[in-house]
Amino acid sequence: MALSARNHLKGEVSEVLLGTVTALITVRVGNNLIESVITKRSAEELKLRKGDKVRAVIKATEVMIEKD
Amino acid sequence: MALSARNHLKGEVSEVLLGTVTALITVRVGNNLIESVITKRSAEELKLRKGDKVRAVIKATEVMIEKD
Amino acid sequence: MALSARNHLKGEVSEVLLGTVTALITVRVGNNLIESVITKRSAEELKLRKGDKVRAVIKATEVMIEKD
Amino acid sequence: MALSARNHLKGEVSEVLLGTVTALITVRVGNNLIESVITKRSAEELKLRKGDKVRAVIKATEVMIEKD
Amino acid sequence: MALSARNHLKGEVSEVLLGTVTALITVRVGNNLIESVITKRSAEELKLRKGDKVRAVIKATEVMIEKD
Amino acid sequence: MALSARNHLKGEVSEVLLGTVTALITVRVGNNLIESVITKRSAEELKLRKGDKVRAVIKATEVMIEKD
Fold it and tell me: Which one, B19, C45, C51, E63, has the greatest CB density within 10 A?
């Protein structure tokens, strides 16, 4: 199974914060912490827990570039 | 100047591909290659070139989580 | 492998239009035609062709609601 | 009135879940359930209720393609 | 007809640039120029021309905040 | 520091509503009110308060066009 999204970053869940509708998932990827807002339902269905091995997935059209 | 976007990943531009309206920018961040689609005009105004030090910036609501 | 994106719609590719950076992929899902803009590279790596069985995948935060 | 978003899928609201800031709206479209996260205020202003006839609207740049 | 997207900004088209797949539409809204990337097909179906009265429409989850 | 996002609209915060995971920030830009959903953490780290001078920042690929 392959997805067109260009960016799949391997990491480990470092925090799960559940709201009513959404959830904040923090993933350590190398030296970076990547934060993701998904639905609470997805967080529950994926049984996301601290320490889980996951990938942060990002569509290329959602990535901006910043330069000094 | 601070931006609400949660994810700012430091890296180096490894490729710039210009189309008519959009451009594909590839950034090496640690062991990952991150691909970004921005406007050609932004690529030109930022004078993006291979080797530039940049940050890939991503709003948390755009990040998905994948788990085996 | 499970992805947090809530919406996975089964369909069949009805058209592939390639640009320089991006590609337009049209997918028939039931009575609807769903259009997707992805990178040309993803279209090539997935070898997308008319008639392919695919899924259109959409993060819930990207879906709006319209009511009369 | 016409909107540039390419995807307008007719369906019926099957669930409304309100949080503090956001709301999760589930819409039956043919054989699929489509989930949408919008602001709670939009859900209230549109008076979204189970059974409402609505359209799920999605910009083409937000649609990914998945293939086996 | 009402759309859940929170932001509808009235303006006038100041430029239309067509690519193969996408198009860049610039809209003057008060003192600001707002740039939009949509599909070339939408630009053609809406017959977008310089001087057209339009609205730029943006989902609230796509808006970031920057502060000094 | 320059960001590829094409749209930076100067305004003043008129409301801050905090949820558990997300926050709704309303910004007056000229005659328009622009609403933004960001993470609660970003709202707290930026110390967003009514009356703050800010910019609403929007990637061009997230802007749709509506025409009568």
Answer: E63
Record: contact D61-E37, CB cut-off 8 A: yes
Is some CB atom of chain B closer than 8 A to the CB atom of A14? no
- Subunit partners of chain A (3 or more CB pairs within 8 A): B, C, D, F
Residue of B nearest to A13 (CA): B65
Residue F31 lies in a domain: yes
Q: Inform me whether the pLDDT recorded for E1 exceeds 90.
A: no
Distance to chain F for B31, nearest Cα, Å: 23
Chain B: residue nearest F57 by CA?
B3
Residue D29 included in any domain: yes
Write out the DSSP string of C5-64: -SEEEEEEEEEEEE-SSEEEEEEEETTEEEEEEEEHHHHHHTT--TT-EEEEEE-GGG-E
Mean pLDDT to the nearest integer, E45-60: 98
Identify the CATH number of the domain in which residue F36 sits.
Answer: 2.40.50.100
Q: Is the C-alpha dihedral spanning A57, A63, A68, B6 positive or negative?
A: negative
Which pLDDT score is estimated for B23?
98
Q: What is the pLDDT of residues F36-64, one digit of tens each?
A: 999 999 999 999 999 999 999 999 999 99
How many structural domains does chain C have? 1
Q: Which among C21, C64, C55 has a CA at the least distance from the CA of D46? A: C64
Query: Is E67 within a domain?
Result: no
Q: 10 Å Cβ neighbour count for D13?
A: 22
Q: What percent of chain C has pLDDT over 70?
A: 100
Nearest to D63 among C43, C58, C68 (CB): C58
Closest partner CB to E22 (pick from B5, B21, B41): B21
- Let me know if F18 is exposed, middle or buried by CB neighbors in 10 A (0-12, 13-18, 19+): middle
Is residue D48 situated within a structural domain? Answer: yes
Q: What is the pLDDT of residue A27?
A: 98
- Residues F6-22 have pLDDT tens digits of 999 999 999 999 999 99
Confidence of residue B3 (pLDDT cuts 50, 70, 90): very high
ipTM of this predicted complex? Answer: 0.98
Contacts E64 to B, Cβ<8 Å: 3-5, 59
Question: Among D22, D59, D61, whose Cβ lies nearest the Cβ of F22?
Answer: D22
The count of other CB atoms within 10 Å of the CB of residue A36 is 28
Q: Looking at chain F from residue 21 to 40, which residues have their Cβ under 8 Å from any Cβ of chain B?
A: 36-39
Mapping DSSP to helix (H, G, I), strand (E, B) and coil, where does residue D68 land? coil
Range of the domain at E37: 7-62
Considering only CB atoms, A4 lies closest to which of C1, C46, C59, namely C46
